């Protein structure tokens, strides 16, 4: 084993001082200044006078706090008077009035949008510039049926630029032609294989009449726009 190394006296003192356990009592580095009641020696006349005045102030504040917690001093007659009612009513009106008064908000009329259905899997239709065109001004009523017919016959709408440059497909051209009877069958079938038409049952006929009655009525959206205001 190597010989023990001799330490300096200052190093040995430092090791002895730091090897001891810390004391559990934590002493603050800066001691607070003692109050006037903690000063050594007897108190003078002025000190006793200040102590008495401070004690009286603390006692009065303590009494007021106790009375406040207990609900104040109990009066003999606890019935509210007319002055109390007036004060409470005025206070209620003052508290119910908003601090910053504003005018009543009037909702603007809903904006009318044209009907553009959105099909899933396709891009959202975006109308071109200038379309949809504004609704024509229609008079509320006509004096004669001929005037109404002439008005709608002379009504013209601007044609879209895309419609002028569009090239219709074969199916669109076929649908634009008038119907031909008998209709062309999708696949050629022999006359023996054609299913013979049967008569409607009473329930089918009743539902058919209901559908015809519904289709004969005008569109409620169109009627709402053409409300007669002369009545």
Automatic annotation (TrEMBL):
Q: Residue spans with biased composition (Basic and acidic residues)?
A: 10-19
Name the source's superkingdom.
Eukaryota
| Chain positions covered by the region annotation Disordered | 1-48, 67-134
- What protein name applies here? Uncharacterized protein LOC108052672
């Amino acid at each position: 084993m190597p010989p023990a190394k001799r330490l300096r006296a200052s190093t040995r003192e430092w090791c002895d001082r730091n090897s001891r356990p810390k004391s559990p009592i934590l002493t603050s580095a800066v001691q607070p200044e003692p109050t006037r009641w903690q000063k050594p020696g007897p108190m003078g006349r002025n000190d006793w006078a200040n102590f008495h005045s401070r004690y009286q102030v603390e006692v009065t504040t303590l009494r007021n706090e106790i009375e406040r917690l207990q609900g104040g001093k109990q009066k003999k007659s606890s019935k509210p008077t007319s002055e109390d009612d007036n004060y409470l009513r005025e206070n209620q009106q003052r508290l119910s009035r908003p601090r910053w008064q504003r005018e009543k908000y009037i909702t603007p009329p809903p904006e009318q949008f044209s009907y553009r259905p959105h099909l899933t899997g396709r891009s959202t239709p975006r109308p071109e510039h200038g379309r949809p065109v504004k609704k024509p001004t229609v008079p509320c009523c006509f004096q004669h049926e001929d005037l109404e017919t002439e008005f709608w016959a002379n009504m013209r709408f601007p044609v879209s630029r895309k419609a002028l440059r569009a090239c219709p497909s074969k199916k669109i051209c076929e649908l634009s032609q008038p119907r031909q009877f008998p209709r062309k069958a999708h696949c050629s079938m022999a006359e023996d294989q054609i299913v013979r038409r049967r008569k409607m049952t009473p329930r089918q006929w009743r539902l058919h009449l209901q559908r015809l009655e519904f289709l004969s009525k005008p569109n409620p959206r169109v009627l709402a726009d053409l409300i007669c205001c002369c009545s």
